[in-house]
Amino acid sequence: MKRSMALLLLALFSMSFLSACNTVAGAGKDIQGAGEKVEDTAQDCKDGKC
């Protein structure tokens, strides 16, 4: 019984950890996209196109 409970807890922890990694990776991509837009706008203003 203890072994089953330990395996269940390990499985739940692993699933939570893996889903958190996907969430952080997705957020990183969103932030990167926003940063690229800011960089493009800054470059346009530097070139006098804003």
TrEMBL record:
Top-rank taxon: Bacteria
InterPro entries, alphabetized: Entericidin
Keywords of this entry: Cell membrane, Lipoprotein, Membrane, Palmitate, Signal
One Pfam family named in its UniProt record: Entericidin
UniProt keyword Iron, yes or no: no
Family, per entry: Belongs to the EcnA/EcnB lipoprotein family.
The protein's name: Entericidin A/B family lipoprotein
